[in-house]
Protein 1
Amino acid sequence: MKNENMIDTRPDLKLLSKLLFRLLPMQIFLALVGSINCIISGLFASNFVGTDAMTAIGLYSPVNMFIFGLSTMFVGGTTILCGKYIGRNEQDRVQNAFTVGNILGIAVGLALSAVYLFMGLADMTGFVTGDAAVRALFNEYIIGQAIGLVPLFLGNVLASFLSIENRANLSTLASIIYIIVNLILNYVFVSTLHMGAFGLALSSSIGLWVFCLVQARYFLGKSSELRLFSSHPDFGEIGQIFKIGVPGAATYGYQTARGFIVNALLAAYVGNAGISALAASDNLLRLAWAIPQGMVAVSRMLISISIGEEDRQTLTDVMRNMFRRFFPLMAAVDALIIACAVPLTRLYFRDTSDPVYMMTVWGFRILPICMPLSLIALHFICYAQSSDKQILVHLLSILDGVICVAAYTALLIPSVGMNSVYIANVLNGVTTTIVILIYAVIMKKRIPRNMEELMVIPDDFGASEDERLDLTIDRLEEVVTVSERVKEFCDRRGIDDRRSYLASLFLEEMAGNVVEHGFSMDGIDHTIDIRVVHKDDNVILRIKDDCRPFDPSVRKEMRDPSDPAKNIGIRMIYKMADHMEYQNMLGLNVLTVRI
């Protein structure tokens, strides 16, 4: 048990873990929405249109990966850039980057819609398949998909920023409506009106418009701090969005190439049954892939903000959390999928004598093994993307995206057949994990001894362990010890008596306010994360808590004639501090004081 007079100083701070797991369900759900709708399309295709329609969806998969990569570029580039600005408290630049990202998404969506319509109407898709019947269905499918490209790009950006504004519940509502609309329209267009592949895609596209518009209403109203479009956007941010977003999105560009290569190998060595089996297993496994995608989305937000704040501890804690909590959770999910391989296959194919049946079963038995390994690669790509480690980003992206899977498949398929594709994905995860370790060894010139060395964090980034003090407070009794611990830290660092006294006084006062006004308001266990940093003769205090929004600047202005001493502590701090900033980001209150 923890001594009542001791404040928690664990390196894996409780507040971070609580935040990650609070944000995780929503990010998984957002990733799940697209997966659920792909599954709906796949089930309607296999049961109401036919095997050729399932093959057409399988052939569209690489194209869809390309579209997802573009969306990731705008979402990732805009989110990471804004995260850095949030970390620096540059609100005007956050608004501008958000506007530019939205405009870019709409522009690219319109351009690609025109390309899709031209290719589908003019039958310019011969490079995808030589089968005339499948190509006709593929053409119908991309014409229907063209209608939903604009809301797809814009809606994904809006969902990411709703999480930052702590309005993820609106994305949940939009996502649920999207699924319901898609399901109803598939029944009407495909099952009742027999509109075939065009009906499959049109159902999803209309659902995307509903998804986007429900979210857009928030940014058009008065309650949002961000506007959907600012009046005079500075398009100079385009370069930064591309610079940050392209490397991370390159993975999906490489996966597009990989998809075409693998489909060609399957067509040559296995036939259309192999393409259908891969499409079916991959289609349903999208549900499971939503989990690592959600995990990476949550980590991306915190990584970008940590880099903007130069918060070395939180940056490494995010990666520790991935290894200690996300990885085991993903492994458990995958074990469940493997155990359910046969019933999952029967959702698509029921004839056990058909070769496609066992091909699909083995897909569910082998493919899930690669997911925990991919989680590692995706996190390191995200971190490298945020910290401008371009060599590592491109190396992992091209290996994970195309080289490993395509090369291993080409090597194994003559002797192993269909299972070569599944095995190649597992070998890909092993290879990228080894490359991450080798990169750290080369850069540090030794085997990494801790997480900071594995991540190759520069020595001059943020505050070292000697330059900072991290404290976690869970109970009222712990507040009284804050002053002593901070005073000890300041004395050890040789900070002058005035600032040492103010630092201990400020933190005791502010932590006490959080406990008094936040801990007892909702019956939920809360945590305060305190950091004191002394670097380059600057003393910076930061308090994070997961209580209800509490802006001390508002309370500072509140006066009570009957009690002149009310809020006097907060007024005193504002008067004596050199600078104070308050933000509410990702549902956390963040107060930064410079003295």
Note: Confidence is low (pLDDT under 50) at residues 1-12, 557-565.
Protein 2
Amino acid sequence: MTWQPELDELRRREALAEALGGPERVRRQHDGGRYTIRERIARLVDPGTFHEVGKIAGQATYDAANELDSFTPSNFLFGRAKVDGRPVVVGGDDFTVRGGSADATIKGKHLQCEEMAHALRLPLIRLVEGSGGGGSVKTIETTGRANVPGVAGWECVVANMGTVPRVALGLGSVAGLGAAHLAAAHYSVMVKELSALFVAGPPVVERLGQKLTKNELGGWEIQLKAGAVDDAVDTEDEAFARARRFLSYMPSSIDELPARGPRPDDPARQEGWLLEAIPRDVRKPYRMRPIVEALVDRGSFFEIAPLYGRSVITGLARLDGWPVAVMASDPYFYGGAWAADTCQKVERFVDLAQTFHLPVVYLVDCPGFLIGLEAERTGTIKQGVRAMSAIWQTTVPWCAVIVRNSFGVAGAAHRNGGRYCMRYAWPSGRWGSLPLEGGIEAAYRADIDAAPDPKAKMAEIEARLTKLRSPFRSAETFWIEEIIDPRTTRPLLCEFAELAAPLRRVGPSLHAMRP
């Protein structure tokens, strides 16, 4: 007497689960250019490492003899796996079963997926499509009642944001609770021609008189510029690759430190062209990204949120193998001034670095907060104060390099002024309460108006103040610690990363990151 009959029944039910929503719905998924959830997991994780949990959970019906008559698997799969040899938790929506809606959701699976990642201190990758277990008006009919809104287990999502790396990939149309899961991530990606993200989809929005396609309402360009999602790629496989690469810079949880990666690049490498990288004409912009690429380990810069808050570039990189968080001003957008969305981007990125113990390198060219009516309408100063406070709350090692401008309150937010942070300046560095341009007219209006040649007087005052503003004058009184040859910046940053490595501390941050 063995238990083989029960094992045979188990295998039968597993086969029903593996069939997903059935051949017709699987074909429809493929016809839409999308993988099924099982195909996605297989392509994302290391081969043969996915260990599914709750595989035969679903909705079953039985005949008069209490024999299984039909079985609809849960529309959410999850389990443990490995990505590049490291254990992770991965969970995803099965759009072939009721489009990921509440009618086919086994609530405990979503919750245990989050709980597993939190308890085991493992990175979590969510593959989101549909409503992510959210509501459907059909639920009223199938259950015979309407439910008061609630999100079971959201406290686990919030806890995970402060504990483990949480990556979310939007792999189709995503709305409602699914949209919330996509937004609640340290790194999120959409697929350009397949994904859309919205609070409510086109049929619902049309009732407001707005007849829009999915892309017009919530396409990738809209959501990246809004900051709801970090990145967009052309294919699902690229999305999987981005997820793997993001995790390569991160620890498995706040209880570990980011591991040192490969060291193929000479830490003493110097780039001669950096001596000419910053134009002498302060009104002329320049390309910051090539400077970033020249300073970090070759090919290691991984930009995050490139279309949002564009006057600051943010991303992860390595310095002699050590993972670091990089911020860099982009003078091509508002001259590097901080707009309201830039401040929100800085706050979020600094919180990411603080949460996961990543030292910060900031290449500074900030003339201050953006000014004007639109800046006031968007509450720039309020958002700026939040960003500044996030910086002042950091305890991770920090190194600022002033490459050109550092003016005003936003310019002051290039480091935590309440503790020691390393700081260098290039000879092109300029700083003060506000730039001379514009400030001269306000401060010397009477002298300029009284002069026989106002333009000449203006030029005379500007030349005089420019000499007084020399970075060497600041160095005399120790307002700036070191003025350096730009070509030596990489060796100094690699030294910073080496010195910072033993100073990092594991554990929770005093200010946990929120979604």
Note: The mean pLDDT is 92.
